[in-house]
């Protein structure tokens, strides 16, 4: 399906766009089923926060209308929404007037093996360490070079995802997902105020778990603590939850809490 730029079918963007030159923008990857987006409110909330923090004057109501129309055309699949600051002069200084670019792209839904959700995955131990920048932490900004380099560390299909740490050996997230551990019946996930991407499925899981009476904690998690966890799983808005059965030489069975949470989000995963 053809992409849309600013509400119109298009196939190209100006080479002077700051998203291309500097990664000056944000994106969301949205699951679409029967023309409707899963977790759309959380996607738009994160995007709006990102626009505010990066000072990108995006018209959210206009974007929402375009997105609704585009998703109806997609039907089922994945919609990638990109917002850039638009074109600018040479140099880092913000343009005096930004003409924001709104880009919508469609793709088919990824076909991951059912065994990932049912039996669990092997998690690769990435050597790359995420840099810390609190002003960008949590946002899904366009600069994903750390994730590109981390994903280049393995080609073995044994591994479905990789775990990323910061320079202090604290667990942050996966290359394209968030990480959770279960310890003594508590659901723990890393604090992402220094680096990492605050996923929309992460937010949804934390909210649903708390509503169900599960003790939830967002905290710094040293790698050593993760290795002592009772259960580990990854979460992402496209696939839901994948249990982790192997990481850094340690093995886990799929745990009761992980199975409970998978059941809790069945309405989002379609399983």
From TrEMBL:
Organism: Denitrificimonas halotolerans
Signal peptide: none
Gene3D superfamilies: 3.30.470.10, D-amino Acid Aminotransferase, subunit A, domain 2
Metal-binding is among the record's keywords: no
Listed EC numbers: 4.1.3.38
Domain of life: Bacteria
Keyword set, alphabetical order: Folate biosynthesis, Lyase, Pyridoxal phosphate
Protein family membership: Belongs to the class-IV pyridoxal-phosphate-dependent aminotransferase family.
Subunit structure: Homodimer.
GO molecular function: 4-amino-4-deoxychorismate lyase activity
Record field: catalytic activity: 4-amino-4-deoxychorismate = 4-aminobenzoate + pyruvate + H(+)
Pfam families: Aminotran_4 (PF01063)
Protein name: Aminodeoxychorismate lyase
Pathway listed: Cofactor biosynthesis; tetrahydrofolate biosynthesis; 4-aminobenzoate from chorismate: step 2/2
Cofactor (UniProt): pyridoxal 5'-phosphate
């Amino acid at each position: 399906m053809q992409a849309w730029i600013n509400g119109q079918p298009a196939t190209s963007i100006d080479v002077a766009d700051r998203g291309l030159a500097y990664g000056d923008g944000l994106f969301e990857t949205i699951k679409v089923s029967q023309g409707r987006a899963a977790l759309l409110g959380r996607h738009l909330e994160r995007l709006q926060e990102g626009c505010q923090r990066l000072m990108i004057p995006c018209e959210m109501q206009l974007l929402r209308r375009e997105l609704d129309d585009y998703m109806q055309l997609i039907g089922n699949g994945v919609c990638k929404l990109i917002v850039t600051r638009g074109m600018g002069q040479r140099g880092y200084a913000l343009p005096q007037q930004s003409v924001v670019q709104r880009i919508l792209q469609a793709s088919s839904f990824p076909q991951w093996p059912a065994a990932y959700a049912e039996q669990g995955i092997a998690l690769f131990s990435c050597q790359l360490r995420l840099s810390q920048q609190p002003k960008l932490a949590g946002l899904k900004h366009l600069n994903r070079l750390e994730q590109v380099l981390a994903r280049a560390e393995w080609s073995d299909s044994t591994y479905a995802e990789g775990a990323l740490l910061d320079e202090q050996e604290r667990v942050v997230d996966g290359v394209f997902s968030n990480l959770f551990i279960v310890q003594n019946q508590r659901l723990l996930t890393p604090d992402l105020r220094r680096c990492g991407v605050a996923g929309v499925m992460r937010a949804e899981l934390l909210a649903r778990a708390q509503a169900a009476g599960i003790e939830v904690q967002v905290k710094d998690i040293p790698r050593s603590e993760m290795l002592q966890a009772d259960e580990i799983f990854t979460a992402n808005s496209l696939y839901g939850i994948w249990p982790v059965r192997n990481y850094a030489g340690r093995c886990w069975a799929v745990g009761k809490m992980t199975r409970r949470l998978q059941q809790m989000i069945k309405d989002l995963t379609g399983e």
